[in-house]
Amino acid sequence: MAQESPKNSAAEIAVTSNGEVDDSHEHGFNRDLKHSLPAGLGLSETQITSHGFDSTKEGITEAEAYEGPSAPPLPSVMSPSRVAASQLAQQGSDLIVPAGGQRTQTKSGPVILADEIKNPAMEKLELVRKWSLNTYKCTRQIISEKLGRGSRTVDLELEAQIDILRDNKKKYENILRLAQTLSTQLFQMVHTQRQLGDAFADLSLKSLELHEEFGYNADTQKLLAKNGETLLGAINFFIASVNTLVNKTIEDTLMTVKQYESARIEYDAYRTDLEELNLGPRDANTMPKIEHSQHMFQAHKEKYDKMRNDVSIKLKFLEENKVKVLHNQLVLFHNAIAAYFAGNQKQLEQTLKQFHIKLKTPGVDAPSWLEEQ
């Protein structure tokens, strides 16, 4: 071949007859390679590695600055295969020239852009900083309200309902405590009546002259003990229902109220902070702070509105549930007490059946699940 096309000039290597690389023709090859590769590689500053065919010798040639048109190709030129040309092109693309001018050679391969590694310690530190700032603002707001210097957001209707709920909870807790005391005392009385009935029955068998008198008293005490156990079952059912209402249902609503009050304090704290910033100057330094404060204020305002709506809904459902539960329990308590002290055993038993109350016989364990099946 006398001449090759310009796009194949990068794949031409001058060799001697014995297969060695001809150093005299490398400058021409480098100039042709500079035209074939992209201009961004800067071949005047590049280090190129060429491999001889049928030889293990590697030559490193430093390309000089391009000064003029390329010389005509010499007659002793051998064109390598397309595979060798592609390998040379890949080796040329692996060359990287740093800004300082030092020449390095890197391996070819896919480039992976890793995400920025997050430091867990810095994240925790940022969380602590935000928590500290929020706590400081809320504490300052609480102290300002107690000293009468700060303003607070008040929903008069909702605040009145919350006060009534807290007052009712204290009264229900007092009723629950007294009912538990009555149950304990009634249990002791029933236990005493049962023992007294057993003692009268024993004496009725041993005293022939007082057999009837001891027998009457034994039957009376056993009947009172039986009615007392029935009344005790009704009172314990009343206590369990009121305890669920006070310590679970009402307590759950009050937990929501506490979250609402915390949201209200945060809302007022950031509202006060925004008002203070708006009263100050507006320049390039304060505007970012004002915008950030406005964003935080809006976020806490949405949280406050949501919690206020949740409290209103829970108070409404609590009132309906409370009326229903207390109505049934008060009717049960009244009917059971009235039937017990009137000596109406049938009415007392009927009251327990009305509210589906099953009495547990003393000394008898609950049946197993096999027996229930």
UniProtKB/TrEMBL annotation:
It comes from the Eukaryota. Residues 155-182 form a coiled coil. Residues 22-33 have a biased composition (Basic and acidic residues). Residues 1-33 are annotated as: Disordered. Keywords: Coiled coil. Residues 153-353 form the AH domain. InterPro entries: AH/BAR_dom_sf, AH_dom, Arfaptin_fam. SUPFAM superfamilies: BAR/IMD domain-like. PANTHER family: ARFAPTIN-1, ARFAPTIN-RELATED. This is AH domain-containing protein. It comes from Pipistrellus nathusii. The lineage of its organism: Eukaryota, Metazoa, Chordata, Craniata, Vertebrata.
